[in-house]
């Protein structure tokens, strides 16, 4: 290979020979509850995540970003190591250091949420609105085994607001809020309401939200098709506490009547989910206990909305029904002044049915129901132990071991028809799904994976101004139900599976092996002694992934799109994240000015072919200048993205040009009233986000002329928001 990969290849060889790096977080931080940060900031504090390379967002930082989006995942923008796959308007997929979708351990109030759609139209962060997010935390790359398994990219935790209780001496406490937002591009409107009542031992809270938008406009004035959405959420939370023990019960319903997907062949035409969560937190003489249980049921329907030719009662209905359930139990046991032991166990169950009803009058889509996945089950039980040691004020270490057993199965399937709709003589050519179904049903479907994870981390505090953290992690992820059990290789059937925004077709492989990632990373943090005025952090990383789940090409769909099958290929990823912040001016009369920024660089390739991995973000930066004076808070953002030249040829991934965007925002807090205003894409630039995928809906609306190009991002949008608390 070329010389620029020589260092990466040498590091891969070192990892395989056992020359693993060791390192980790401050011991005390892992054992305590992490508090919300006052704003988006890369400056470390004792309340930040338990790793130098981690990042957190809460408090006023979340409040400043909520008016600009109805997509909870978009709140992560600007955190080191994070980028976003394009998807629907409220359903983008977070990417950590080049790895996305199921490779990210994404926990919403402690629970993972499995895909309930072959296109991942309802990913985990789409299940709650931005108004309900109280805190976000990102641990990219190396993560302690106590924060989850069955993932190789890292962990994102999303927490809604905890119960609020009356203050000592207050008989009854009541509070609430009302908010409304308007965004000019797409004429998006959103509203949210909260109300809670409590005494010092019990609390009841309601959260409701609604958001709707039409198709947005690109910078050149054209409408970007299939970007509309409509979603409503209603959630009740009950809390009870006594003598150091807290119980939280939460239940809710989400209704999504429609959501367009500009990069997919289908749209979401109905999505309804209900959930129940329970949590117990307790402190004892021997340590702390955190136990959670969750249940969720999702009913999802895909079809064509108007931009893709949909008509009332017609089209091609596709349905999914998914049930998620599980628990997790974690305990922290202080063994001595130096040593703390973290132990835990969790169980996760998913059942998936994915079927496509016959279409009346269609020879190709009938007369039977097509079963994409029938009675699919995925169960996982995981157990971990983690030893945390504070050797001296300068040295802390963490060593963790985890085992996850994953067992999967599915039932017999069937195509729309076992017969050739245009004549038996051409059955193999015209109806490949019948042959695929027979071959699939003749196989044994059950699979069991025994996965082992290991994390070793160390942190050295060199002085009041410098810290170094380094580590190695072995992380494992088993395939999801679609990667193993989506069986059809026909042009239509395969094109309905895939969450990559490329309009290609995908088929599964029951014999896929789990992905095993060996990751080495180090973080250098420099800051002022008080950890308030300035900080610079640099985190280079390298991952060698055995049996990375990529693709092999098995045919063509026409119009330049490919037919692909999931397949194991070894791969490497490497890059670096740089973040910095500094207060450059602070005066009582004129306020405080703070500059901050993040820069990210990621590359990845498949080892046997040398082809670039799909959707690797090119060099990018987000630079922010903030000003605060009394109740005023304002910011100017400069978003810079380099040209994307390295693309995966196998999936016909398009290149995208470089661009620079300017965003403005301001807010004013006056008593219990907050006003927000801003302009996104101030200069109304036409640009193409590198990870947005292809503009399939625009390509279809344009009569399928030429080749489908990358999806254009939104043009200039004015936003205004009002929040009243009481």
Main attributes of the structure:
Maltoporin, Chain A, 31 strands, 726 residues, mainly beta, tonb box, 8 helices, five-stranded mixed beta sheet, 22-stranded antiparallel beta barrel, receptor, globular
Fold and architecture overview:
The chain is mainly β and 726 residues long. It has one domain (159-410, 445-725): TonB-dependent receptor, beta-barrel domain (Maltoporin, Chain A). It is 7% helix and 51% strand. The chain has eight helices and 31 strands. The chain has helices at residues 6-16, 27-31, 60-65, 427-430, 432-441, 481-485, 491-495, 696-701, and strands at residues 55-58, 82-85, 93-96, 99-100, 104-108, 111-112, 133-140, 154-160, 173-183, 188-198, 202-213, 229-242, 245-259, 267-284, 287-303, 318-334, 339-356, 370-390, 395-409, 447-463, 466-477, 505-507, 515-527, 534-558, 561-587, 591-606, 620-629, 632-641, 659-670, 673-680, 717-725. It has a 22-stranded antiparallel beta barrel. The protein has a five-stranded mixed beta sheet with strand order 1-7-8-5-6. Strand 23 and strand 24 form a beta hairpin. The longest helix is centred in the N-terminal third of the chain and has 11 residues, at 6-16.
In short:
This protein has eight helices and 31 strands. It has helices at residues 6-16, 27-31, 60-65, 427-430, 432-441, 481-485, 491-495, 696-701; strands spanning 55-58, 82-85, 93-96, 99-100, 104-108, 111-112, 133-140, 154-160, 173-183, 188-198, 202-213, 229-242, 245-259, 267-284, 287-303, 318-334, 339-356, 370-390, 395-409, 447-463, 466-477, 505-507, 515-527, 534-558, 561-587, 591-606, 620-629, 632-641, 659-670, 673-680, 717-725. Pfam families: Plug, TonB_dep_Rec_b-barrel.
């Amino acid at each position: 290979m070329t010389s620029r990969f020589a260092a990466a290849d040498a590091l891969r060889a070192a990892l395989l020979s056992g020359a693993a790096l060791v390192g980790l977080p401050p011991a005390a931080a892992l054992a305590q509850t992490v508090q919300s940060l006052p704003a988006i900031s890369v400056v470390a504090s004792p309340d930040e995540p338990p790793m130098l390379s981690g990042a957190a967002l809460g408090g006023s930082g979340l409040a400043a970003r909520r008016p600009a989006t109805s997509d909870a995942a978009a709140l992560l923008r600007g955190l080191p190591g994070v980028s976003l796959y394009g998807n629907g308007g409220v359903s983008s997929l977070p990417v950590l250091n080049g790895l996305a979708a199921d490779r990210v351990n994404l926990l919403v109030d402690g629970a993972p949420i499995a895909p309930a759609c072959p296109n991942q139209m309802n990913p985990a962060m789409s299940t709650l609105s931005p108004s309900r997010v109280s805190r976000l935390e990102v641990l990219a790359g190396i993560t302690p085994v106590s924060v989850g398994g069955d993932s190789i990219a890292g962990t994102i935790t999303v927490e809604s607001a905890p119960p609020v209780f009356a203050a000592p001496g207050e008989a009854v406490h009541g509070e609430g809020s009302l908010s409304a937002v308007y965004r000019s591009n797409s004429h998006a409107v959103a509203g949210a309401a909260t109300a809670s009542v409590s005494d010092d031992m019990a609390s009841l809270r309601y959260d409701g939200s609604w958001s709707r938008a039409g198709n947005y406009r690109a910078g050149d004035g054209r409408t970007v098709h299939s970007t509309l959405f409509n979603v409503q959420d209603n959630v009740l939370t009950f809390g009870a506490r006594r003598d150091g023990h807290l119980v939280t019960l939460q239940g809710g319903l989400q209704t999504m009547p429609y959501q367009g997907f500009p990069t997919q062949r289908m749209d979401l035409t109905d999505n309804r989910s209900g959930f129940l969560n329970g949590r117990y937190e307790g402190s004892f003489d021997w340590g702390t206990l955190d136990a959670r249980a969750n249940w969720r049921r999702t009913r999802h329907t895909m079809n064509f909305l108007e931009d893709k030719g949909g008509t009332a009662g017609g089209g091609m209905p596709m349905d999914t029904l998914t049930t998620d359930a599980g628990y997790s139990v974690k305990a922290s046991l202080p063994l001595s002044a130096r040593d703390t032991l973290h132990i835990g166990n969790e169980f996760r169950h998913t059942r998936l049915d994915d079927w496509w009803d016959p279409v009346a009058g269609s020879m190709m889509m009938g007369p039977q129901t097509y079963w994409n996945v029938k009675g699919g089950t995925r169960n996982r039980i995981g157990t971990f132990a983690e030893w945390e040691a504070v050797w001296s004020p300068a040295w802390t270490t963490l060593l963790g071991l985890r085992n996850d057993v994953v067992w999967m199965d599915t039932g017999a399937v069937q195509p729309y028809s076992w017969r050739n709709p245009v004549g038996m003589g051409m059955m193999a050519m015209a109806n490949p799904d019948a042959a695929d179904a027979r071959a699939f049903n003749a196989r044994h479907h059950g699979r069991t994976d025994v996965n082992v994870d290991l994390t070793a981390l160390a942190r050295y505090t060199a002085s009041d101004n410098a810290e170094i953290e380094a580590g190695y992690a072995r992380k494992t992820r088993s395939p999801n139900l679609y990667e193993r059990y989506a069986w059809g290789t026909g042009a239509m059937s395969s094109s309905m599976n895939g969450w990559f925004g490329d309009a290609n077709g995908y088929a599964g492989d029951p014999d896929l092996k789990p992905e095993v990632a060996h990751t080495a990373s180090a973080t250098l943090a420099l800051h002022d002694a008080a950890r308030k005025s300035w900080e610079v952090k640099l985190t280079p990383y390298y991952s060698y992934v055995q049996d990375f789940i990529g693709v092999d090409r098995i045919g063509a769909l026409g119009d330049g799109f490919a037919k692909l099958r999931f397949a194991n290929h070894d791969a490497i990823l490497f890059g670096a994240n740089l973040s910095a912040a500094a207060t450059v001016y602070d005066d009582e009369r004129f306020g405080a000015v703070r500059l901050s920024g993040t820069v990210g660089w990621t590359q990845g390739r498949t080892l046997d072919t040398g082809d670039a991995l799909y959707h690797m973000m090119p060099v990018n930066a987000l630079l922010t200048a903030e000003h605060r004076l009394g109740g005023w808070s304002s910011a100017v953002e400069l978003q810079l993205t380099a040209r994307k030249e390295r693309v995966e040829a196998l999936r016909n991934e398009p290149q995208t040009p470089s661009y620079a965007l300017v965003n403005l925002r301001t807010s004013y807090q006056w008593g219990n009233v907050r006003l927000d205003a801003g302009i996104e894409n101030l200069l109304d630039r036409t640009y193409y986000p590198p990870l947005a995928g292809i503009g399939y809906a625009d390509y279809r609306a344009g009569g399928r002329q030429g080749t489908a190009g990358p999806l254009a991002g939104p043009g200039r949008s004015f936003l205004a928001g009002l929040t009243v608390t009481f």
